[in-house]
Amino acid sequence: MIDKAIVHMDLDCFFVAVERLRDSKLNGKPVIVGGLSDRGVVSACSYEARTFGVRSAMPMRMARQLCTDAVVLRGDYEAYSQYSSMVTDIIYESAPIVEKSSIDEFYADLTGFERFLGTWKFASELRQKIITETGLSISMALATNKTVSKVATNEVKPARQIQILQGDEKSYLAPLSVSKLPFCGSVTTQTLRNMGILTVDTLSQMPVKLLQNTFGKTGKLLWERANGIDDTPVIPYSEQKSKSKEITLEKDTIDIVFLSRLISKLAEELGYDLRESGFCTCCITLKIRYSNFDTLTRQINVAPISADHDLIHHAIELFKKLFDRRILIRLIGIRASKLVRGQQQLSLYDNSAKLASLYGAIDNIKNRYGTDSIGRAFNFDLNKRKPE
Question: Which residues form the active site (predicted)?
């Protein structure tokens, strides 16, 4: 049986790195990318800023107080998507099976390459090719499964690479904190610590039944990961261009309230589709078609999102800017493009984080009883119409 060879690659401080490529004066300086107002949130920060305690998802006001000399920039997500696509193309052209897990993270299955070029040599050359052709820094780990390769990449960041050989997975993970494992969020980590489980080594020796009684199905998963076991395949990457929802009205109208409700409903449906397929969107486009068949569109680039309230907000704002005629509308639609794999990163300091569990519950109800079974009361009577 051929040993599995899974490489994980992660772009270092990706947003900041792109900004530095566009402005070399930022090199060596503490840089923070995110919302510029005090109510904004840090999307990314340079390693120089991290030494002052700045972290992603931190309120911008706090970040400014911690690092008073930081250069604060509003994110240019169109540029980030372009650079991400460049890296994706390089990996996709070279590796046989590629999974893009987020805008700046990639897995590649290189199983079998050892018989030809040598897996480690190939992976190293691929990483160097990305650095040379894009100017971006990227870290990498090669192991026998996705869990070990991802954990190892995080340990060697920034700008380094490592190989964990077959049979060394468990010993490599053993001394690390349980918080280093995937699926060990803040709540799970704290629960494990309350049980006296601080390291991966201790977790790997716990009875599976005890972990299952505490964490349910996740308990067995945690035990497997702690023991370096992970059979999760690399899902072949094939970029989906966009997702959209639109409807042709039964009767042309200029009723702003009704149209706003309809946009909100379409955005809800789009958000559900995005979350169910594991995508976030970096670009939202609103389309309207007038009764004279003139069609107009307007779009905005955003941070990767899939939450209903964010999609609704941007769609309504686009509508306000786009609808500038007193002409009846016959069609309206929303498109999500520049899709990236992954879930929306929600901040503990942002109201959106409080809605994360709510969206999960709503999606579960829709999965069980149908997409029209639950929704905002403001739009609920619109469930009778069917979008195209």
Answer: 105
In a domain, 102, yes or no: yes
- Last residue in a domain, options 179, 199, 226: 226
Residues tagged active-site: 105
Residues whose CB falls within 8 Å of the CB of residue 170, separated by 6 or more in sequence, listed in order: 204, 227, 228
Domain that holds residue 111: 6-11+81-226
Asked if residue 87 and residue 72 are part of one domain, the reply reads no
Do 211 and 96 have their domain in common?
Answer: yes
Same domain as 305, residue 259: yes
Pick from 110, 106, 30: nearest CA to 66: 30
What CATH number is associated with residue 50? 3.40.1170.60
Which amino acid, 324? Answer: D
| Cα radius of gyration (the chain) | 23
Distance (Å, whole) CA 277 – CA 211: 29
- Residues 258 and 372 reside in one and the same domain: yes
Question: Who's near 34: CB < 8 A, 6+ residues apart?
Answer: 40, 41, 42, 43, 44, 60, 63, 72, 74, 75
- Tell me, what's the pLDDT at 377? 61
Place of tokens 């780990």: 141
pLDDT of residue 185: 83
| Structure tokens, 305 | 């999102």
Task: Tell me the average confidence (pLDDT) per consecutive run of 10 residues in the chain, 388 residues long.
Answer: 87 96 95 83 93 91 94 88 91 91 92 81 95 96 97 96 96 96 88 96 96 92 95 78 86 92 93 87 92 88 88 94 86 90 59 60 71 62 47
Residues tagged in the binding site annotation for Mg(2+): 10, 104
* Residue pair 13/322 in contact by the 8 Å Cβ criterion: no
Cβ neighbours of residue 214 closer than 8 Å, sequence gap 6 or more: 191, 195
Check residue 333 and give its pLDDT.
93
Give the number of domains in the chain.
Answer: 3
* Alpha helix (H) residue ranges in the chain: 14-22, 47-50, 60-66, 77-94, 119-134, 146-156, 169-173, 186-194, 200-204, 208-215, 217-226, 256-277, 308-322, 351-369
Distance CA(377)–CA(198), nearest Å, equals 45
The answer to whether residues 215 and 268 belong to one domain is: no
Residues 216 and 271 grouped into a single domain: no
Of 193, 163, 164, 168, which Cα lies nearest the Cα of 178?
193
Task: Say what angle helices 256-277 and 308-322 make with each other, to 10 degrees.
Answer: 140
